[in-house]
Amino acid sequence: PKHYPSELLSELFKVYTIWDWKNMPVKLFEMEYDKPSTCMTVLTPASPYNSTERVNEINFKVIMNEFRRGN
Question: At what angle do helices 57-70 and 5-18 cross, to 10 degrees?
Answer without folding.
Answer: 140
